[in-house]
């Protein structure tokens, strides 16, 4: 099995980044969770029993870090708070190697299954855990299983109130577990009457026959052909002038993880093509330039100052929770 990406793309990853024909960079994100914490196995693996499963997230995340280092790539790591609690040293390591720390909830529960109070409590606990492990502020959020849907848009206001400046949780696709099919496909800003704002960065989709198709993340990156994902990068760079938001999980590069008995569909989604994922990611890192969400946000802020605030993207106004409840 190949352990290095194929030579035909480019032998020198640093040169690839510098010589990239298009100045556009993309966003590299990792949801740091263990193989037994995914929603697909939630019925089989109870949260109270997480401690009893052999943990592999430490070693797998370090492999992701090594892979990124090989190509000089920096990314945003959304930590599950429970993992950060068990492995503060790993949180510090990710930060020390130049990546951004962000939040992927504490218990990895779907947001639509929680009350606003439960969501606030979970989010606060996760944010504090990650922040105290590394001593840096955490301002980015990603919901477990993309579970900010039409039923729980209230979560966005809570995120803004809890000090988050951006979110990357709203997947504009049809899916049995998540998604807001009509949501915008490119970054936009939620705003409230009291002046609070939250920037939203959707994961990448392609438009085909009036439908949004997921691409370049998780199972879609792992299972779909490399050509499909590469086409997305081309279209995003040339036609959209937008960044591809790539996401992956440490367990996706671990073909030797213990197998969990679950429904066929869940097993297919979780275990297909684990062996090839490292190579696929390596090739992406070789061909494209990536940055962290915090860099994107800082770039947007600088551009807005330069062009005057009027040039800012139009806002999506959300009613506040009091107005909804009135
Ligand atoms: Zn997750």
Overview of the structural elements:
This protein has about 325 residues and is α/β, with parallel strands linked by helices. The chain has a single domain, classed as Glycoside hydrolase/deacetylase (TIM Barrel), CATH 3.20.20. The chain is built from 12 helices and 12 strands. Strands 1, 2, 3, 10 and 11 form a 5-stranded parallel β-sheet that branches. It has a 5-stranded mixed β-sheet with strand order 4-5-7-6-12, sandwiched between helices. α6 (about 155-160) links the parallel β4 and β5 (about 165). α5 runs parallel beside α6. The longest helix has 19 residues, at about 115-135. Residues about 1-20 have low confidence and may be disordered. It binds zinc ion. Zinc ion binds near residues 104, 108 and 144.
State the fourth-level CATH superfamily: Glycoside hydrolase/deacetylase
Please count the beta strands (DSSP E, at least 2 residues each): 12
Question: How far apart lie the N and C ends?
Answer: 61 Å
Structural class: alpha/beta
Please tell me how large the radius of gyration is: 19 Å
What's the average pLDDT? 88
How much of the sequence lies in strands comes to 5-15%
Describe the largest sheet: 5 strands, parallel
State the helical fraction: 25-40%
- Low-pLDDT residue spans: 1-22
- Topology order in helix (H) and strand (E) letters: HEHEHHEHEHEEEEEHHEHHEHEH
């Amino acid at each position: 099995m190949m352990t290095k990406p194929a030579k035909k793309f480019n032998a020198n990853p640093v040169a690839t980044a510098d010589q990239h024909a298009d100045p556009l960079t993309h966003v590299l994100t990792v949801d740091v969770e263990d193989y037994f914490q995914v929603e697909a196995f939630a019925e089989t693996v109870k949260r109270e029993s997480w401690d009893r499963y052999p943990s592999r997230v430490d070693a797998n995340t370090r492999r992701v870090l090594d892979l990124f280092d090989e190509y000089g790539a920096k990314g945003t790591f959304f930590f599950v708070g429970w993992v950060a609690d068990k492995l503060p040293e790993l949180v510090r390591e990710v930060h020390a190697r130049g990546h951004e720390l962000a939040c992927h909830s504490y218990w990895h529960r779907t947001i639509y299954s929680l009350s606003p109070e439960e969501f606030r409590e979970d989010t606060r606990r996760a944010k504090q855990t990650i922040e105290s492990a590394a001593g840096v502020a955490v301002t980015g959020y990603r919901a477990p299983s993309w579970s900010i849907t039409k039923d729980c848009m209230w979560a966005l206001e809570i995120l803004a109130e809890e000090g988050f400046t951006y979110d990357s949780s709203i997947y504009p696709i049809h899916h049995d577990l998540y998604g807001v099919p009509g949501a915008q496909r490119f970054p936009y800003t939620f705003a409230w009457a009291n002046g609070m704002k939250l920037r939203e960065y959707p994961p990448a989709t392609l438009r085909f026959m009036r439908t949004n198709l997921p691409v370049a993340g998780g199972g879609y990156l792992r299972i779909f052909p490399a050509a499909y994902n590469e086409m997305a990068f081309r279209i995003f760079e040339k036609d959209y002038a937008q960044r591809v938001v790539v996401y992956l999980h440490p367990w996706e590069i671990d073909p030797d993880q213990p197998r969990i008995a679950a429904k066929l569909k869940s097993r297919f989604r979780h275990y297909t093509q684990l062996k090839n994922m490292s190579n696929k990611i390596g090739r992406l890192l070789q061909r494209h330039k990536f940055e962290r969400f915090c860099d994107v946000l800082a770039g947007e802020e600088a551009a807005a100052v330069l062009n005057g605030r009027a040039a800012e993207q139009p806002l999506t106004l959300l009613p506040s929770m009091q107005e909804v409840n009135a």
